[in-house]
Records
---
Amino acid sequence: MKELILCKYGEVVLKGLNKAHFEHILMTEVRRRLEGLGDFATWWCQSTIYIEPETDDCDLDEAFRRMKLVFGFATVTRAIAVDKTPEAILAAAKNDLPERLYGVRTFKVEGKRSDKRFPLSSPQLSAEVGGAILEAMPHLKVDLYHPEVVVRVEIREKYAFLHAGADKGAGGLPAGGSGRAMLLLSGGIDSPVAGYMIAKRGATVEAVHFDSFPYTSEQATEKVLELAKKLCAYTGRMKVNIISLTKIQEQLKRTVNEEYFTLLLRRSMMRLAERMAQTHFCTALITGESLGQVASQTMQALGVTDCAVNLPVFRPCIGMDKEEIVQIARKIDTFQTSILPFEDCCTVFTPKHPKTRPELAKVLEEEAKADLSALEDEAFAAARRLTLHGYAAEEE
Ligand code: ATP
Ligand code: MG
């Protein structure tokens, strides 16, 4: 039995004149993700990318798993591919489809003939294939209105395809079509989710992580790299920049009113993230902030943080409850890593009574006392940059 993977576009189909541009991006992404899994032929036609194994040793299971995580596909299907003759189609319906219908009680068949030269009309095709399935599995019943499974038969340009249901794709838009953005990635639950959400809208996401060694541990940084690797399942690859905030935190601790410590630290993080973004052609920042979650995420505090930078700041979790964020974290498999108990730099030297309604003038006055610019230059110059792809990290 020959099987192909069919990846059907989601929103990309609405892209009009830009559609070919997005198709090229998707195709590049698909080929990159198939690396190491064997020789495949890939092509696109009618809003679908086709993946055909060319040798017997291709890892189709892994290819299928990876394709379900590529942004831009609405559905991903493992389809039985046969010659475009009624005989071959009916033979596959009898011999190959039944194993995909175990445990099913009701079904219907939807035939579709894109190639109008095929001798049967779509309704005839559906009826014939339905009959063949019933011959092989007489206990099944046809239910045209509420079937448990819809068997699809599609006569396309090269093959006829049969399958018993498509899997949901990752949705969203193809990676890179929406530009580049810099994610402030902590070890928490929210920022990996925020990165995932913006990557899903077609941005190439890279990350910046701030450590505060030795106040934070090596394991805390390892944990963040682990989170970035988990995101790579969706993004394919990811650059992670690591900047040490230790001296900046010590300076703030020494010089500013404690109530402003966290806010000033966050402004410093935003400035450094913006610098990193501009160096690597990112045109937006992303954070995992959610309105009211902690003192530094009140409306006033977010306003004061935003003023530190000129780039737009995307906060996709802003209107979400923790429970909703956790749900996505579980789906993208970052949750279990996020809850490992390591210190984040934001929890080092935290004040007992942080300002929740800061005034910008007062914030700037305190910031002037700390005189951070030389320390920020130094921290930026010492940044490390890693490339993560699959499950390996390389230092640049
Ligand atoms: P998260 O669950 O993502 O850690 P949080 O609820 O812990 O978020 P904060 O610690 O206040 O919230 O951080 C708010 C946002 O600031 C984070 O979502 C992240 O975008 C950014 N951030 C916090 N700490 C760091 C860090 N050490 N490195 C990079 N970004 C950070
Ligand atoms: Mg955090």
---
Amino acid sequence: METVAAATKKSKKAKQVPFDYSKYIRKGKLPHIWCAGCGHGIVLKSLLRAIDAIGRSNDDFALVSGIGCSSRTPGYVNFNTLHTLHGRALAFATGLKMAKPNLKVIVTTGDGDALAIGGNHFIHTCRRNIDMVIMVYNNYIYGMTSGQFSPTTSQGMIATTSRYGNIEPPFDVCKMAEAAGATFVARATAYHYAELEKTLYEAIMHKGTAVIDILDSCPTYYGRFNKYKTVSEMMEKIEKDGTISVKQAAGLPPEKLEGKLLRGILYKKERTEYTAEYAKLVEKAGGKKG
Ligand code: SF4
Ligand code: MG
């Protein structure tokens, strides 16, 4: 496998030339179900470009999802794919990784799927530090089931289940991932798509649990309920004005950072990876090596 620096350079270069997505798309599965203006297509584009920069065979990757709009991602792409049960993507992904430790497993999940129904799986996947990338498409609402508030909906925001404003405080996905034991934690947005591509590349190259909180947009429910007039207005207010890169934030006084979420790699650490540790255990017990 090439070095991070060499492939990052290649990835930057790739942005300047047209990119052929055809080898990654299952054309027979199109058209996709996503609404006009949904951020999921941008996230997918960045993911495919990051995978391409890594330069491995499509067969080396497995995309796993639960249920929800973001969970439709694996159906459209030409990798090993699993579309599973609501909130259970990480349980299936764990089983897959244990059976096939050489696969690079990437989980595409939503804020509801990952943090409400699948919240317990999320915590324990991070704790084990099993080698996989968890992409949380965070659009602060349940999209597919028609706009209920989720664990990342901000207080005061409108959803089908909070018609007078949500009273629950939201999770900070990154803080929770780090506290639970993930060894790569980052935040990105669909608006900053080039940064997202780079962050995804670094996450895929990382050996251990990599969580990316990807701020994304659901204009159909969140946007409409909360009176964003256009998709671009929504993306600019939440993803552009509501975040600041780690680099830009360095040296700024706390009052300048108020109300802004940090973007970029927020935490990275080397720690024993779960499948490697399990293989050692099997050997110790006299079984076959993984
Ligand atoms: Fe995207 Fe929302 Fe439409 Fe689902 S309902 S496809 S999240 S815009
Ligand atoms: Mg959602």
